[in-house]
Amino acid sequence: MSKFCHSCGIPLDGQIAKEAVEDFCNYCVNEKNELKPRSEIQMGVAEWLKTINPSNTDGDFIKRADYYLKSMPAWAEE
Ligand SMILES: [Zn+2]
């Protein structure tokens, strides 16, 4: 069973991302291994959504990232 980051959903397979802290990838934690603020994760996810949807130029990626994060265990309570 593959693991994924509970903040951004990236697979923790050691290829794209590696597990820096239990259940979180190296992109989602700072140098102290603390989870970054939601706003920062949201920006990163928005950028990622842009790269996988290059033809969708009118999308509100920040808003989509917000919805996306609501499905993540780390941010689901909001
Ligand atoms: Zn992550």
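^ zinc ion complex. The pocket of zinc ion is lined by residues 5, 7-8, 10, 24-25, 27-28 (CB under 6 Å). The chain has two helices and two strands.
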